[in-house]
């Protein structure tokens, strides 16, 4: 494989030419949770396509559980009932609510899975943006905040303190789906090798404080692509979230 990668390579998920005739990438993908989930395998790993599909099945299952766009989901049921009665939820939903409450407290409320009323009144849920009235905005704000969500860990019961409260796991739901997909692949003998993302404005990338804070996989390498220059620059790092430090590591792109 070529050792030179351009910005176009990464934007198109094209990681260079192969030296061996017939070598190619296999992409197994599916749309779930309003985004594209994809598992990429080299031709040498073609036998793992079944594992990739099993991982994507897990993403589908998580979407069915968490989506607010299906009346049959556990989260939709919770949003309908929890203001009027105590609702018992499964381990997955309760665990996500508990973790969301922790992050809400740690971020001073900046992270909030109860912001759905605001998304609704601004038209974001319907993807039809609108300017809400002052009264609609005030009503939505009054229903937002994890202080309105009461959790009983012993019984996995949830109750909303007022009407109008809604939860929507959004990005943390997608992250949970990726974690579950990783677990499925690991159970089949696959391992997480690396995680990559881009810094659009950086010509020479290095981990940001946010990257360090969110580096939850200490055994993985983190590839960061700087897109701020004429060509993409790729650097690899070991990051320790617990020790709040990072170190650049050497990497080689090979067959």
Notes on the protein architecture:
The chain has 255 residues and is α+β, with helices and mostly antiparallel strands. The chain folds into 3 domains: 1-68 and 169-191, no CATH class; 70-167, Orthogonal Bundle (T-fold); 192-255, Cytidine Deaminase, domain 2. 33% of the residues lie in helices and 20% in strands. It is built from 8 helices and 9 strands. The protein has helices at 7-11, 49-66, 74-81, 91-106, 116-121, 134-142, 170-187, 209-213, and strands at residues 25-32, 35-42, 87-88, 149-152, 157-160, 194-199, 221-226, 233-240, 245-249. The radius of gyration is 21 Å and the shape is globular. The model is unreliable at 1-8 and 15-19 (pLDDT under 50).
Key terms for this structure?
255 residues, alpha+beta, T-fold, Cytidine Deaminase, domain 2, 3 domains, four-stranded mixed β-sheet, three-stranded antiparallel β-sheet, 8 helices, 9 strands, globular, disordered N terminus
Describe the structure concisely for a colleague.
By secondary structure, the chain is α+β, with helices and mostly antiparallel strands.
Fill in the CATH topology of the largest domain: T-fold
Give me the number of helical elements.
8
Overall average residue pLDDT:
86
Structural class: alpha+beta
Sketch the topology as an H/E string, one letter per element: HEEHHEHHHEEHEHEEE
């Amino acid at each position: 494989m070529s050792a030179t990668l351009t910005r176009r390579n990464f934007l198109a998920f094209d990681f260079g030419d192969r030296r061996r005739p017939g070598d190619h990438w296999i992409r197994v993908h599916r749309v779930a949770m309003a985004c594209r989930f994809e598992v990429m395998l080299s031709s040498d790993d073609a036998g793992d396509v079944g594992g990739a599909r099993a991982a994507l099945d897990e993403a589908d299952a998580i979407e069915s559980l968490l989506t607010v766009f299906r009346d049959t989901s556990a989260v939709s049921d919770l949003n309908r009932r929890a203001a009027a009665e105590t609702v018992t939820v499964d381990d997955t939903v309760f665990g996500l609510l508990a973790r969301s409450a922790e992050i809400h407290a740690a971020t001073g409320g900046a992270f909030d899975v109860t912001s759905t009323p605001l998304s609704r009144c601004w038209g974001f849920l319907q993807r039809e943006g609108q300017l809400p009235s002052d009264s609609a905005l005030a009503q939505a704000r009054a229903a937002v905040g994890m202080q309105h969500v009461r959790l009983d860990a012993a019984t996995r019961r949830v109750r909303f303190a007022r009407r109008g409260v809604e939860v929507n796991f959004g990005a943390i739901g997608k992250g949970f789906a990726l974690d579950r997909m990783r677990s499925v692949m690991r159970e089949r003998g696959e391992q997480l090798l690396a995680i990559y993302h881009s810094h659009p404005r950086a010509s020479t990338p290095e981990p940001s404080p946010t990257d360090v804070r969110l580096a939850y996989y200490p055994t993985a390498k983190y590839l960061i692509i700087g897109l701020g220059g004429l060509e993409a620059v790729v650097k690899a790092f070991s990051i320790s979230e617990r020790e709040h430090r990072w170190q650049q590591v050497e990497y080689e792109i090979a067959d």
